[in-house]
Specification:
The protein is of the alpha/beta class. The protein contains 7 helices and 7 strands. The protein has 2 domains: 173 residues, Lambda Exonuclease, Chain A (Alpha-Beta Complex); 39 residues. Strands 1, 2, 3, 4, 5, 6 and 7 form a 7-stranded mixed sheet that branches. The N and C termini lie far apart (47 Å).
Amino acid sequence: MTFLQLNGIQHFSFCPRQWALITIEQAWAENEDTVIGDLVHRVSDDALFREKRRHLITLRAVPIRSNELRLNGIIDVLELRKNERGMRTSFEEGLWMPNIVEYKKGAPKKNLCDVLQLTAQVMCLEEMHGIHIDSSSLFYKSTNRREIITITADLREKVRLTVSQMHDCYDEGITPNASYGKHCQRCSLVEHCWPDLTKRSRQVHRYIERKWEELQ
């Protein structure tokens, strides 16, 4: 059974080709955005960190997994508050309701790529501990604030569909064609991807198909 990296759902939702270049073709390149992203996440990379303040416990770099989704991942920051509907821990008595805090370098996005990553993290934690989590958080460095995300049934279904597509691509070794747009300009993999060339290739293919149909 193949397990994929959970943070890949953010890449796949943003651009399936980008995800495939990283995951299937093992391509990688740094740019300003990737370096800043790494620096932002270093704040939460200490897996030994544990802090308790009254009724709040804070953990960092918490490993998670889901057998249903076949995903492995790491939670940046996990906050635990006492709640009778929560989960048990190995280091504190009682039940604790988790709030995931996923760190992002930029600002809130118009698409759902960050939200789907957070939802997948919630689903992993729920499966591991047999609980239900209503909401969790995205922290954006550029605005220095949290966005509280309600984890709806619709978001959960979108995660299942997206992850299924990821596994299909991985199992079949498929790198999707590029969808050329403004988002390509800041992608660190643009030199590996050649999105404009891929777009022109599709246009030529469609032109040949139309001409062939006209001859029939």
